[in-house]
Amino acid sequence: MAPKVKLGILVPSSNTSLEPLITAIISPFLKTNAISVHFSRFTVTSISLKPDALSQFEFGPIVAATKLLADAEVDIIGWSGTSAGWLGFEVDEELCRRITDETGLKATTSVLGLNRLLGLLDVGKGRGPGLGFVTPYLDDVQAKILEVYGRAGLDIKAESHLGKTVNVEFARVGEDVLDGQMVDAVAKLGEGKKVVSTFCTNLRAAQRVEAWEAKYEGLVVHDSVATVVWNMLKITA
């Protein structure tokens, strides 16, 4: 029997984390054949604000990778990446429109899924929970992410970043380092309800979410690998 829902995921070429993490997330559904997941890649090797790094996210190669997923007759396309965090949310919105125009399939992204979740929780809007970001990125990339979310009206109370640029190295960040970043972010957010996004799909962070939420009272963690899967399933439901 064919799976009831087939998810098509776009992967940065040098990302070695998101495929095993997504497979683990949906593993209960794999046993019942309710969901299957399929991947396609396009070139991404470094993250910075330099022109050659920004050009990796031009629409042409991404849409070409999407067409390969469409050949598998997936039900929806998800871009498992956080580039709209520094390029602007409108870039992901336009990408989704182009994917739909080219393939006839609905599409979403890690960032759009995260933003939907933040809206549901009224995060970063004064009365809602405080918001923080944990990433591996360079200073200027991190600053751009905070700027983009600030323009959207969200007040970022905490952040932690590692100053890295080579994408394949993000997957080598150990749990001890991520735990330290989370300690830093949670301390800055203080008491009460709070939300932290682990904002990079090549960080092996999703498997730590349950432990972090159990350790820190009032904490909700939205990992960018999980947010695209969540939104894809909400849309297809």
TrEMBL record:
InterPro entries from the entry? Iso_Racemase_Enz_sf (IPR053714), MaiA/AMDase (IPR026286)
The organism's superkingdom is given as Eukaryota
Name of the protein in question: Asp/Glu/hydantoin racemase
